[in-house]
Design a protein that fits this description.
By secondary structure, this protein is α+β, with helices and mostly antiparallel strands. Helices cover 24% and strands 24% of the residues. The chain has helices at residues 41-47, 135-139, 142-155, 171-183, 194-203; strands at residues 2-5, 16-19, 29-38, 64-72, 84-87, 118-122, 126-128, 163-167, 186-190. The longest helix is centred in the C-terminal third of the chain and has 14 residues, at 142-155. The radius of gyration is 18 Å and the shape is globular.
Length: 205
């Protein structure tokens, strides 16, 4: 397998391409061939060692990726070889409020991320993709959608019928619009660009 590593605190200039034998697959795990990644502000913060959480001295960066299941271990039922999947940002955080003991499982921080040709994940870390969603599109979803979800429903405790305002029309803002509509929350958007306002309206703002 091919992968990249960096040393947090030394920036993206410390990126190094490496190769190693593919790791063994354990029970409840799946091997995923990574087809697309996205870059978040958080990934740059990790590279500069500017995150509030501890980071490894050397790690495989990036938290968001999507790919194809190549192989599954004993007991796996959630996915099958050939499935197109997106990888969750923090596999240990399955539901409920975020708790500190879950932090080490966030990808690309203490745990290796997805800037690799393949990686192994627990089956609960993988979500199947609809046919119409590309790998590139899917790889842009986990971190931004989780950010929007946490702000609205964990930190904000929004309920149906309430209103949320998001500034700008970046990925987090657009994820906010989609999640708000699904939850029955009214969503307003500010933007200086008419075409982006039109997109937000189509999504439900």
């Amino acid at each position: 397998m091919e992968f990249w590593t960096l040393q947090p605190g030394k920036g993206i200039a410390s990126l190094q391409r490496k190769s190693a034998p593919s790791p063994s697959l354990g029970p409840g795990q799946a091997r995923v061939a990574i087809k697309a990644n996205s870059l978040n502000a958080r990934d740059l913060m990790v590279a500069l060692r500017m995150t509030p959480m501890p980071v490894a001295d050397e790690l495989v960066p990036l938290s968001d990726g999507a790919g194809i299941v190549e192989e599954i271990g004993d007991g796996v039922t959630r996915v099958q070889p050939g499935d197109r999947v997106v990888i969750t940002f923090n596999p240990a955080h399955q539901s409920g409020p975020f708790e500190a003991h879950l932090a080490p499982d966030a990808l690309g921080e203490m745990r290796s991320g997805v800037l690799a040709s393949e990686a192994i994940f627990e089956e609960m870390a993988l979500v199947k993709l609809p046919d119409e969603v590309t790998f590139e599109q899917a790889s842009c979803l986990p971190c931004v959608a989780l950010t929007a979800w946490n702000a609205m429903f964990e930190a904000g405790s929004l309920m149906p019928g309430q209103t949320v305002l998001t500034t700008g029309t970046g990925m987090v803002s657009l994820a906010t619009v989609v999640l708000a509509k699904a939850a029955g929350v009214r969503c307003g958007v500010t933007s200086s660009e008419d075409d982006k306002i039109d997109l937000a309206r189509k999504l439900g703002a």
